[in-house]
Amino acid sequence: MIASYPRLLAATILAFIVIAGALIASGVATRSYVGRAFKSEQELRMLRILADQAFKYQLDEETGLRGYTATRDPLFLQPYDMAKEKIVPVFDELIRGLKKADLPAAVAGANEAKAINAIWHQNVAEPLRLSDHRNANALERRGKAFVDRFRWRMRDFVYRDIDDAALAVDREAQVAMDRINALVALITFSTFLGAIAFLRQQNLAAERLAAERNSSQEQLRLTAEIRSAYEAEKRIADLLQDAIAQRPLPTLPALRFSATYVPATEEARVGGDWYDALELPDQRVLFAIGDVAGHGIESAVTMSRARQALTTAALLDADPAHVLKRVNEELIRQEAPMVTAVAGYADSNTYEFIFATAGHPPPILLEPNRPPQLLECGGMPLGVHADASYKTRRVQAMPGAMLILYTDGVVEHSHNVLEGERLLLEAVRRAADSPSIDPARVIHEAIFSTRAVGDDAAILTIGFRVRPSVGVTSSGEDQQNSFVAQLTRSTKGPIILPSARARLRWFLPARPAA
Amino acid sequence: MNQTPVVVVKFDGELEFSRREELREKFLSAANALSVLLDFSGVTYADSTALAALIAFQKASRKRAARIAMVVVLPQFDRLLRYAGLHDAFAVFPDRGAALTYLAEQKAQ
Predict the structure, then answer these.
(1) A419 to chain B: nearest residue by CA?
(2) What is the pTM of this model?
(3) What is the pLDDT of residues A375-390, one digit of tens each?
(4) Domain B7-108 carries which CATH code?
(5) Could you give phi then psi for residue B69, rounded to 5 degrees?
(6) What is the per-residue pLDDT across B20-70, written as a single tens digit (0 to 9) for each?
(7) Which of A83, A153, A208, A482 suits a disulfide with A113, CB 3.0-4.6 Å?
(8) In this complex, do B14 and A415 lie within 8 Å of one another by their Cβ atoms?
(9) Superfamily name with CATH number, domain A246-494
């Protein structure tokens, strides 16, 4: 017994050493397994993000260019130019990463996609950018073929290779996990509780890896393409909408403007609201507000067209009903989605608002020391019936009077438009009592400080300044010179301004003969 | 006498973008009818998508010379129709009886 004791001790110590050695070895092994899997998982995720970026930039370029060729509005070139600048470095980084990850098919696919993009720039995009290109349609068709080939290369080579590699990593991680589990079982047997705790930790790491892999991989695979397409569209629509809607308001001696525009918070409900206030070359002051049905790039394009058509028509015709009729005809011709709008002129010599409405909520008139008043509305929305006609309304106001235009988001937040109107009138009353020089903001805040903005909400106010009573009152001569007064009195047909026509020539030939 | 059957399509609640499929199917069910009663008596709200669908239906009906009568009861929906200029484009009635009478008279002509 005594003699065998040292041997037993030695055996025990040896067992300890062996088990400790096995533990350390397995620990190191699992750690390196898990670590490697994590590393390649991360690498592949990075590559996927880069591929997504390249894909998105191509989409941005294409959508921006599509918008530009449709409208010739240089605003659409903004996303195009931005993406064009970034796509090459992204491709270079992607290709470097793919080489490092040893994915030859993806490298070839990415190289080809990059080359297709470059050829597309040279042969399609840049020629299309040059205005009045005769072969625009043929070029666009060619462009579409390029874009399809680009997408095909990206999907079938780059994405597929990355996904296959990710699957391989998954399998490797699965093997690692099986081994870890086997070790855990083995060593549990050997009653080393501390070892169990240690290995348990390793196991948790592997489980975390597996969970992350399962949840993200499938999702990524299914939604990447749809998502990036949608995001590009929304990103561009938002960008355009911001730029379009927030055109600066003119500063004029006799008129005061204010405006707010808050886009919808809900992603899918990005609308096409806009407002305009501009002094025309003949000193008339045009104001307009509008709302394109639907959302996304199509409504941004329609918005741009509707505004151009409206400004052009306003240059040619002083009667708001005729202006809306012309815009309607133009939108019908372009098969655009439905648009609601109010357009008119403010005459600071006669203190008149002259306007017409097309399917749009009614303007509000606010005069000093009087309750605000909802004006008449009506008229079919634009772009519906080719033969729709509109009615010009003249409102005789007084110095200090203000016209408030808004889009449906301002009164439809509760889905009860009568309640919405009541709240709006209350907000206008508050603006009347406020010393603020920004009534649109006061109105917006009175309504939306306690309510969520569900749809786009735009407000435009046009006010006649109160002129100092001493000295500079408007003379009779001024009144006679009022352009709007002259035109609306003296003419029934359109007034053609040759310079305006020359400047807007690209738009006019397409207009159907009135 | 030519007995054209009246196709009745009834709508309820808030007509919104999220219900566009349902709206499409409902309008489709009356796409070939020559005499249509659109019952909006339970409708409180319609967004621009729904109004666009209604306008598209009206446009198509006008092409095939179909008669449409609309029943509108709730003032908040009536107001929306006035915004959209649809009061001038449709025959609007406060109840079904009046709408059916209108459709019958139209047929008799």
Answers:
(1) B76
(2) 0.61
(3) 999 899 999 999 999 9
(4) 3.30.750.24
(5) -125, 140
(6) 899 999 999 998 899 999 999 999 999 888 998 999 898 888 888 899 999
(7) A153
(8) yes
(9) PPM-type phosphatase domain (3.60.40.10)
